[in-house]
Structure formats: structure tokens, C-alpha cells
């Protein structure tokens, strides 16, 4: 039986491979961008408040910083306690057009040794975990020009 | 400028992993602070409790919980929560009650009983809660954020893991002298370097533990202090509990992203540097007036960050300040002579109160082997989840 692919949070990203994008919202009055998406009201205190419309975020950005998780994070992060813990890297990425930093897990196989502050990375589809019925999908950051 | 309030008493229950209820630690700290102040609990008109989210319902109503444990005597109670800044908010509320004339004597209490391992969000599926999101989607524990900040400092300012280790070495040496600290053993740079990496580039000994502990202060009006026979008390001169200004451009716990600065220019100062700045302005002093500082060293690298945010040195020069010994005992501006979180571990709602306890003892000249000679002015600095910061300036 094939699993259903379900985003870990609805509405935060969409698309496949080269079309994959993080989705934020943008204020129609002041152009502020929000990720995670703000759907109720613009949070810029100097804005009179416009409509919030969905916008894809830039695919590429530069590494603001990075780290990794050498120990198993607690719930609600889902892991299989039967399996040994496999550390993964986390990357904070500066998106120049949006002037914001967005955190994400690094694509599988990448370690902190592969990363440097200022390096160009791109957003790619990723899998957070799988259970019997569902493949829970997420976003990953990956250095540009690398296929893992 | 506002008026001062007097610190009549300070008390702590030692930090550790004692396996008992937070109520016990808080009540013990409160009794010690009352004894220190020479006051009976029944003389207290108001109690402000700093909440814990780890003690069930009694933790959410900490003011009443501590009042009941001390013995109901009719005092007004207030309970506040502001993550790691809860203790300073409790001090801020107590001060406001005193300065407005609503209370003469206020008891401030915070205590926690911490779980083993990482802090984790409250139970249940809450996709709208940023604290749930960061764990569910990224597995981003608190130390991973500390790791991001540390790596950024290495890349931008050239800090090294050896610099970070030196913060631990300095603080552990002071903690060894503090009977209230949980870790009372000196640590070598080699021991830091040999400890396991938790969140690259930070190792176990770079990151503060989670602890049990309790701290309390007895605050009063200056007039009450005089009537009570204390003519020159240690005084709280300023309390800052400011929030960020949009757009906040430094990734803060528990957020997955910063604000976007595309529509509004960020303030010249970062949020963290605006926290002590507000306290300096209220007190009418600057960093050059300080005798010592207690800062929130959730990690060794974060202590260095605070040097810059407090204005002890220019941006990027914190490691140099550390290497020169300026922040060690006997230096120009000793930092974390209590031993800091490195020696205590964090007991969340008690920690910002404990920082003020240390300044109180230092300014009275009662800090024993940790005493900073001639200490007259001290500042605390702290930052917690969800846009909470605090700084308290204490003077003699």
C-alpha cells in the first residue's frame, strides 16, 4: 500500500522538485512578508492593514548560520526510538529579497562539515518521517548545485 | 527618573536536582529572604510569584501557591509569566506596586523543578503554537538556537571554541565559591573540549543545564526601609522589560523565521541591546558606571554576546574583553561572579530573581569569597522566549 504524502503543516510549502517553494503571505498595503504565514492581519505596527495574499518565498538564499542536533529531540518531533539517533544539520538562511532569515533542516546526508556561513543554498522538498499510512513532507535547505 | 525601591532581604534555596516540588524551594527561599530582611511574613502586604509551566495548576498561580505554603495571612497576590524573564517581571510588578503607594512591602518569589533533558513544549497538537512548530517540524531544541548564535559569532567576529570554553572556565571558578550553585567544581579548557558536542559548535559544558531552585526578594519603599532602621539599603534603580520592535531581525526562540525587513527599516539596535539600554536610560547611568554584571549565559557564546549588548565593549570585541581578563574577578567589569547559569543551571522563574540576589549581596559586601571589591552598581540581563527580555539595575 502506498503512503499518502502530507505536508507536516498545511500551507507552508508546495510544488515538486524545481517548482518547490516555501509559501508565505504578503501584505497588500505595506508589502511585508510573513513566514510562517500570517493570515489574520499584518503585524507591521506602522501599517494600516491590507489583505494578506499568499506568496512563494525566494528559492535561494545564503547561510546565516548553521548547527546540528546531536541528541534526539523530544516529542512532538517524531523519531523511532528503536533506531539509533542520526544527527541532522539545521540551517538558518537569509533571503535577500524578503530581508528575512528562515530556519530549516539540511537535506539528508549533509553535515556541518559541508556548510559555511554565506554559502548559497536552495530550498528542496524533504521527508520529515513516515508512518504506516503517511509520508510527512517538509522543506530542506541544500547547497546549490548539489544533488543528494 | 523614577524613585528607588529598597531591597530589604534576599534568599535562595540552593540549585540542584533535588526531586522535590517547586513549592518547597520557593517557600524556603522566601523564608530565608524574610529572615534576611528582619521581617515576619505577616508584615508583607503583597506577594508576587513568578510562574512555572512545569508544576501544573499550582505553577500557573505561583503567587497564591507560595502564599498558601507560607501560611495564608490575607496578602494580595499576583502571578506573572514571561519565560526566562518571569523573575524580573515579578520584580517589576512589585516595584510598581511600591512606587504607586499600593504596597509598602512586597515579597517576590520564583522557583522551578526542572525535568531531565531538553525542555519541551506543552502536550497536545497545537499547529498554531510556534513552540510546538519548532519541535514538530524541525526538532529545534533550545541548544540548537544557541549553536546557531555561536556559529554566527565565529563566522562574523572570529570567536573560537577556545574562547567559549574560557567563559565556562571563568564561571565555574566562581561557582566553586558559591554555596547556592549546583556545580561547585572548577573546570579546565580541556574538559570543555572533551565534552560531547550537543549542537555544533557547542559542547555539553558550553550549555547550561536545567535545574531545581528557588529565589526570593523582600522589596519595600525607601520610607519603609528607613522606618525599619535601614538607612542606606541596596536599591533597585531601574527595571527594563521591553519587547522587540518590528521588524525583529535576529532569529529568536522559539521562532522558525525572523520578521521581514522589506517594508520597515529595522531599529539600529537589536532587541537584545535595547533591553539594557532601557534600564540605563531609566537609571541615568551608562555601562562605564557598572561595578559588575550578571548576564544570562544560557551558553558560553551567549555570555560573550551580552558583553556587546550591555555596551561593555564594541560589537565583535567580546572575546578580546574576555581574553584580557576584564570580565574575570579583579578585572574592569567582572561578569557572572555568582558562577552564572554555567554553575547554576537554569531554574527558569527563579533565575532572574537569583541574579538580583547576587547583586544585592555583592553591593552589601556580603558575597564572601566572590566579593567584588567596592561594588556600587550592578546590572542583570536576561532574555526569554517569545520576546521577553529583562534588565535590572541595582545600586548602593
TrEMBL record, chain B:
Every Thiolase C-terminal domain range: 268-395
GO molecular-function terms, A-Z: acyltransferase activity, transferring groups other than amino-acyl groups
Domain named Thiolase N-terminal: residues: 5-111
Name used for this protein in its record: Lipid-transfer protein
A Pfam family the protein falls into: Thiolase_C_1
